[in-house]
Every structure is written in structure tokens, then in C-alpha cells.
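Sample pair:
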Amino acid sequence: MSAVTDDAPAYVTRGEFSDVRQDVKTLERQMVEVQTTQGAQSGQLSQIIMNQDAQTAMIRSQGNVRAMIVSACSGLGGGSAVGLYALLHSLGKI
């Protein structure tokens, strides 16, 4: 008579293997948690990169240093003209 019959599958059932199975299940759960965390962090990183690219494009589209200097001088000139007008108006010259 053979030890393995065709009716029932032959499984090795020993107490030591249940501990190994529990360890494997624990590792699988931890691995799922790590993969979930990595997925969330990957999404956040890609969003940060997209925001940075958008900000870089916005800064580049606004112009260069020369344009900033021209606009600053224009603002100062306009402010000076308004200030001079207000001064002369308050003195009664205009």
C-alpha cells in the first residue's frame, strides 16, 4: 500500500510551518503598505514636478531682466510726475 492515495492530497502539516506562513502573511501585508505609500509619494512627486514646470514656464513667459528694468523706470517716472503734480497743486501753482 502506498503512502499517497489518489483520493486525498498529501499535505505536510507541521506546527513549524504555521509560524512560517504567519511570517509570510505579515511580510505580504507590510509589502502592500509599502507599495501603497510609494504610489502616494510618486503621485505627490509628479504633481510637485508639474507645478515646478508650470512656474518655470510662467517666469520665462513674463520676460527678462531688461523688461523688468523698463517697467520699473516707467513706474518711477509716472509716480514722480504724479507726485510733482500733487506738490504743485497743493502749493496753489496749478
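The mean pLDDT is 80.
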